[in-house]
């Protein structure tokens, strides 16, 4: 009985050692993709030509997320400005010096579930990873 228990514990630990780095890598890549998307949208939206991040830009962003394997319908985009005005209105772009703050949230999708093998508790099913950034608008009328 003792040897069976040792075998089960050793098998679970070996399984975790073999597969955990892969899942951690996927987590890190997802986080990097989200942050890259935030930085890209802020760079384009806060440029001197725009001063906003439109819904069309967000839809294009979701398409880029889908291209790397994420489910775009699960991505949550939060867009605010530092002065309280809408940061997604092309008719009223934000003037130079106004900050545009963008946050993209995405669920973990049980990606760290393998950590249960060694007794770690993975994030809750409704937990979200997020990427956030802020850039000052450069738009001048």
Describe the structure.
The chain has 141 residues and is α+β, with helices and mostly antiparallel strands. The chain has one domain (19-136). Helix content is 40%, strand content 17%. It has 2 helices and 3 strands. The protein has helices spanning 2-45, 55-67; strands at residues 76-81, 99-107, 128-136. The protein has a 3-stranded antiparallel sheet with strand order 1-2-3, with helices on one face. Helix 1 (2-45) runs antiparallel to helix 2. The model has no long low-confidence stretch (mean pLDDT 89).
Quick summary:
The protein is 40% helix and 17% strand.
Task: Give the SSE map.
Elements: H1 2-45, H2 55-67, E1 76-81, E2 99-107, E3 128-136
Antiparallel strand pairs: 1-2, 2-3
Helix pairs in contact: 1-2
Please give a handful of descriptors for the protein shown.
about 140 residues; alpha+beta; elongated; about 40% helix; 3-stranded antiparallel beta sheet
């Amino acid at each position: 009985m003792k040897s069976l228990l040792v075998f089960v514990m050793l098998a679970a630990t070996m399984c975790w050692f073999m597969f955990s780095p892969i899942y951690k890598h996927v987590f890190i890549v997802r986080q990097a993709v989200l942050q890259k998307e935030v930085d890209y949208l802020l760079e384009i939206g806060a440029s001197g030509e725009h001063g906003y991040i439109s819904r069309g830009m967000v839809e294009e962003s979701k398409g880029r997320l889908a291209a790397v394997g994420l489910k775009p319908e699960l991505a949550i985009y939060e867009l605010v400005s530092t002065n309280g005005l809408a940061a997604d209105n092309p008719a009223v772009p934000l003037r130079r010096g106004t900050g545009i703050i963008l946050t993209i949230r995405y669920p973990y999708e049980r990606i760290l579930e393998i950590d249960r093998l060694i007794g770690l508790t993975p994030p809750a099913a409704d937990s979200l990873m997020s990427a956030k950034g802020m850039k000052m608008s450069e738009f001048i009328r």
